[in-house]
From TrEMBL:
S-adenosyl-L-methionine binds at R37, G56, D77, M121. NCBIfam families: UbiG. This is Ubiquinone biosynthesis O-methyltransferase. The gene is ubiG. It catalyses: a 3-demethylubiquinol + S-adenosyl-L-methionine = a ubiquinol + S-adenosyl-L-homocysteine + H(+); a 3-(all-trans-polyprenyl)benzene-1,2-diol + S-adenosyl-L-methionine = a 2-methoxy-6-(all-trans-polyprenyl)phenol + S-adenosyl-L-homocysteine + H(+).
Length: 233
């Protein structure tokens, strides 16, 4: 089975992998939103003592922070360079995360019903078949377990803010980071969840104030949003 990955996307992030843990680099937005998404996950499914899978872990920013909350974390990605950076950073942080180069679909075949929590953040808009990732999440999470996802909405405002604003005006991200055609409407992601047998339980937006330079969670899902789902028992 061919990996559900875009080689150009992998190459793009691999070239920047050595800067993953620099909070002033191209990955600054990930560092700034990480406390928000970490608290959101921990609030709804206490991380301490839980088995957690982080799909598309990259350099390990979220994976390490969840391990810091007492979770037993596995991080998977298809970028060798990102995983190398993630593993190296463990020596600096002292955290324990088990990193593997494997696709979500392959791991779902090997280890179904294995995790209390599955996260897939800022990744779905970078793969050819996001529905396949959602199906893998549904297989990987235990009955009663939670799946946490985040991605970008597809509308004019999202194009204006996430592409034109973030990449060309504010220079928050490298140009070409996002492909607007791959953005996913909440209704589409909800349908993917239902088809995979997951119950969508929460939709929440994430916004950025360019004046205060602060991110926050709220009702505005026009650009960035997060979705929480649960596998029925």
């Amino acid at each position: 089975m061919s990996p559900n990955a875009d080689e150009k996307e992998l190459a793009k992030f691999s070239e920047l992998a050595h800067r993953w843990w620099d909070p002033n680099s191209e990955f600054r937005p990930l560092h700034e939103i990480n406390p928000l998404r970490l608290e959101w996950i921990d609030q709804h499914s206490s991380l301490k003592g839980k088995s957690v899978l982080d799909i598309g872990c990259g350099g390990g920013i979220l994976a390490e922070s969840m391990a810091g909350r007492g979770a037993k974390v596995v991080g998977i990605d298809l970028s060798d360079k990102a995983l190398s950076v993630a593993r190296l950073h463990l020596f600096e942080s002292g955290q324990q995360v088990d990193y593997h180069k494997v696709s979500a679909e392959a791991l779902a075949t090997e280890q179904p019903d294995s995790f209390d929590i599955v996260t897939c953040m800022e990744m779905l808009e970078h793969v050819p078949d996001p529905a396949s990732i959602v199906r893998a999440c549904a297989k990987l999470v235990k009955p009663g377990g939670h799946v946490f996802l985040s991605t970008l909405n597809r509308n004019f405002k999202a194009y204006l803010f996430a592409v034109i604003g973030a990449e060309y005006v504010l220079n928050m991200l490298p140009r070409g980071t996002h492909d607007y055609a791959k953005f996913i409407k909440p209704s589409e992601l909800s349908e993917h969840l239902r088809t995979a047998g997951l119950d969508a339980q929460e939709l929440i937006g994430m916004t950025y104030n360019p004046f205060s330079k602060i991110y926050s969670l709220g009702r505005d899902t026009d650009v960035n949003y997060l979705m929480r789902a649960q596998r029925p028992i």
